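Hey, resending since the last one bounced:
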Amino acid sequence: MAVTITGYEQKMKDDKVFFVITLQGDAKVAFSETTGNPYLTADKAKMTTAFDEVMCQMLVGKQLAGSIQKVACEPYSYTNKETGELVTLSHRFQYSPKEATNVVQEAATPTMQVHTMQPPQPQINPFMATNPFGGEMAAA
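The structure tokens again:
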């Protein structure tokens, strides 16, 4: 699985500027609680970075190995921006790496593995020596 970096935001805390990237998981089918009809959605999470704005811009569209996980947390209130409704939630979404790796990959770019082959090692006969003029000669 992979998540895609879809954007970033500049934040400020204690007079320090830092950037947060937005990660989005794979599309998945969900069902409306009111109509029961299916629709596509994707989980999103935010993650702080140690990068400047130029690096964050370059990361948009890249993929990281891993997924977005729903994690239980202490209940908190959230105001729905579209409806103005106050909702209490007891979960959040968080990035979870698939492997312990720091590799960032291009989105939809196939990867290529290169294998180097070593030539077979010659069998050495300790009783034979190589003749500088070709062929073998018996060791003394």
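Residues 30 and 36 are 9 Å apart (CA to CA).

Sorry for the duplicate.
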